[in-house]
Amino acid sequence: MRKMFSLLMLTTIVTAAAPARADEGSLDKDLIRRVVRAHIPEIRACYNEGLARKPELAGKLTVDFMIGTDGHVSSSEVQGSTLADATVEGCIEATVMNWLFPKPDGGVVKVSYPFAFEPG
Question: What is the pTM of this model?
Answer without folding.
Answer: 0.80
